[in-house]
Specification:
It is a single chain. This protein is α+β, with helices and mostly antiparallel strands. It folds into 3 domains: 31-118, no CATH class; 124-134 and 241-361, Sandwich (Immunoglobulin-like), CATH 2.60.40.4070; 139-238, Immunoglobulin-like (Sandwich). 21% of the residues lie in helices and 35% in strands. The chain has 6 helices and 19 strands. The protein has helices at residues 4-7, 22-28, 31-40, 47-54, 58-69, 82-118; strands at residues 8-10, 124-128, 131-134, 140-146, 152-158, 164-171, 176-182, 195-207, 215-221, 233-237, 244-249, 259-265, 271-278, 284-289, 303-311, 325-337, 343-347, 350-353, 357-361. Helix 4 packs across helix 6. It starts with a helix and ends in a 5-residue tail after the last strand.
């Protein structure tokens, strides 16, 4: 059975950034003010905290240095140069203080990025990147809001025959936007057939009565961000949305240019796809990849790099310091945070870092 960690990615205020409502702002204050407060409060923890305070008290700093650094050592061949020692002492203290402050700053920026990413859910975005992680097509993602009175939520998924194929309970979800992702497996971890499934998410309240074990009662069915109730909601599990289309812009000023070869490599640098186009300098177009390798097998989820090699009429490489711009557009279905703390947007086609988003586009985008 999948664990809760595998099945859900929770977004809560103060954690990884919930979607704030006007009621939240009235209670907690507008988010920009909250960010300013958190940034202003950044200071080193533990020992570096006391070091930071020393910078405002030169007398204490001097005493500390005199005690620890200027005592004569009768066994040393060379005695310490007081000024050199004091410079190193100052540098060490400053490094400790800055390192701690930067750690706190990075954590604050991560929270800000997650908050921003949550606000893009449901939007069509234009992503400019030559590296993309192909997201699994066997996945449905539900984003819904949870109030403070909710103590848990349950998920039930039925097949076309009305049989329950998957159930799960998530406790203490936290107020704000919550996210549930189902990778198309049953409760034994086996992949279910592709097709239509009905998803229901129930918001529950914990009830405790004397002399009886705790139980959960239904408050209401969850509602998606557009307000629609998630109860017997039909979702299609398919692999078709793993095809990737990306737009390209060939650089200007290349008079010899006639062809471009398109290479796609995996995270280990192995080529999995090659194509060729007839192009001219300044061309703009769309390139499609069905996510199959040279042997016709569907590639696994991984980070892939797209590279355009520009060539002349003899199909020889053209020497240039200009590169082809690669963009992908897609509707944001969810967000996730990778092991390095970077916030990724998840579309029906790819995963890409928040930093790669260039603009929000219309539904008629690529």
């Amino acid at each position: 059975m999948p664990t809760i960690a595998q099945a859900t990615n929770r977004l809560v205020p103060g954690d990884i950034g919930a979607q704030y409502t006007s009621a939240d702002e009235e209670k907690n204050g507008a988010f920009p003010d909250e960010m300013k407060k958190e940034t202003a409060e950044i200071e080193p923890m533990g020992a570096p905290n006391s070091l930071q305070k020393l910078f405002t008290d030169p007398e204490k700093m001097l005493k500390l240095w005199l005690i620890g650094e200027t005592k004569p050592n009768p066994f040393a061949q060379e005695q310490k140069d007081p000024m050199d020692s004091f410079g190193k002492f100052m540098q060490a203290m400053l490094m400790q203080t800055q390192t701690s402050a930067l750690t706190n700053l990075e954590e604050t920026m991560e929270r800000s990025n997650r908050y921003t990413a949550a606000g893009l859910i449901g939007e069509m975005v234009d992503i400019e990147t030559d590296k993309m992680t192909i997201a699994s097509g066997r996945k449905t993602i539900e984003n819904f809001t949870v109030s403070e009175e909710v103590d848990a939520f349950s998920v039930e998924i039925k097949n076309a025959d009305g049989e329950i194929v998957y159930q799960n309970m998530v406790y203490n979800p936290g107020a704000g936007i919550n996210q549930f992702a189902w990778p198309g497996i049953d409760n034994e971890g086996k992949e279910v057939p592709l097709g239509e499934y009905r998803v229901s998410i129930s918001l529950l309240k914990k009830v405790v009565e004397e002399g009886a074990p705790p139980r959960f009662e239904l408050l209401e069915h969850a509602r998606s961000l557009d307000g629609a109730e998630i109860h017997d909601k039909v979702e299609t599990l398919s692999m078709t949305d793993r095809d990737v289309q990306f737009s390209y812009e060939i650089p200007e000023g290349l008079s010899e240019l006639e062809y471009a070869s398109v290479w796609i490599t995996d995270s280990k640098g192995h080529a999995v796809h090659k194509g060729e186009l007839e192009v001219k300098s300044g061309d703009k177009g769309v390139y499609s990849w069905n996510c199959l390798d040279a042997a016709g097998k569907r590639v696994p989820e991984d980070t892939y790099t797209v590279q355009f090699n520009l060539k002349n009429g003899n199909r020889k490489m053209i020497a240039t310091d200009k590169s082809t711009i690669v963009r992908v557009s897609g509707k944001v279905q969810g967000i996730e945070v990778n092991e390095s703390g970077e916030t990724n947007l998840v579309t029906s086609r790819i995963k890409a870092p928040l930093s790669a988003v260039k603009r929000i586009v219309s539904e008629n985008g690529l």
